[in-house]
Amino acid sequence: MKYTINGEDQQIDFVNKLPLITAGFWIMKITATTLGETGGDWLSMTMNMGYLVSTLIFFALFAVSVGMQLMSKKHHPFLYWTVIIATSTAGTTLSDYMDRTLELGYTKGAIILVTILLSLLALWRLTVGNVSVDNIKTRKAELFYWATILISNTLGTALGDFLADDSGLGFLGSWLLITGILLLVLAAARFTKMSRVVLFWVAFILTRPFGATFGDVLTKTRERGGFDLGTGYSSLILLGMLVIAIQWFYFRKNKVVAVAA
Known about the structure:
Elements: E1 2-5, E2 8-11, H1 23-46, H2 51-71, H3 77-101, H4 105-128, H5 139-165, H6 170-191, H7 196-219, H8 231-250, E3 256-258
Antiparallel strand pairs: 1-2, 1-3
């Protein structure tokens, strides 16, 4: 299909159904994962659904949305970010179920999730040839992509909870620590020759505890170092922010205008 971009005709290849990795991608990723934290807590704790029931509900949402994503023929922004939100909410409640209901604790839960994540990446690398998100053009690679995202978001939740609850840093301190680490990753990407694939997955994993701790900052009481906005209001605000961000980065007027092929 032909598109006019800034007055110039360009041919767009829709084989890769994933978005470009830009600053806009990371802004939307952080917003979506923070929404996953507040949304997961809203259903499991505020609505008293419990971790297991909430996990089943969010996994059903994930199954439906990722099935639609796999069947799609091109990149659909709202569908893609719906899947990301589903992996984040499911990861939140699954991590809480492992750590609290099963009483594995943050350390054991994180070790299990790290093992699964590294195994997935190794198997992906072995069977596909690379783990780059810029070269996903097969169903097998796409399946690995979404499975890895689901586990990385679950791991990120466990890491965020560990930092906020067990490290002594508190919610705000943990968020500031992860923010500092992400800035170091950004500096490494800009000023060094480190593998961009490795830096991408490090940043992708860390944005989840960033979202988890930031979500806690928004929702927890002032006595616990939060802003006491509650899970419901915080989720609505973040959802609105994500919709606006998608509109801004994907559909800016006169930026990309579809024309007849």
